[in-house]
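Board notes (copied after class):
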Amino acid sequence: MTPKQKAPKQKAPEQKTTRAAQRERTRERILAAARELFTEDGYDRTSIRRIATAAQVDTRLVLHYFTSKDTLFRAVLRPEEPAEPGPPPKEPRDRTTAASCPAEELLQELSAKLSGDNGDVGAAIRSMLTNDAAAEAIRRLATDRQASLVPRIGQPDADTRVALIAALFLGVVAGRDLVRLPGLADQDPDRLVALLRPCVHLLLLGSADHHGCSQG
């Protein structure tokens, strides 16, 4: 290379990372605004324009990330899972862990919902009562979850058992977070899950003895 020649400029990796981080922050800001509006006002009264205003972005940017209100609503209900989840344990010793037991798996999901770190169930419940599209979106998610669990139950009426658990959980969340029932509204999520554990195991697997859970 002669003294007059200059090496080609390359974009710093930090710049690319920063742009990706900015896009992710924008997406999360839109999701947060949508979650709050869907919860407070339901599906029908929440528009893309209102979400954009609350997120302080242009309406076109909301549609760039989510394409439609229905897509955005489903994203609020089911946050994205990690792209590369870790491998499950080869031979878990404790058969009551969520990795090996469908009842414990569902109880873990309920705990996350009650703790407010698994999407926003309040938005789902309030919206599904007033809008057919919202109800259908929730039905599709529930059907997909049911299909993944039924083969693991080992009962002839497994689909009914899973559906009953879903209805039970829906009532618990609605009673606690929306209706604010006394004795339920301020109860610790771990306590509620502990009380429900024998019921869930009995209904789902035919035995209230969660220590003997061996379905996987």
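Comment from the instructor: Residues 1 and 65 are 45 Å apart (CA to CA). The chain is about 65% helix and 0% strand.
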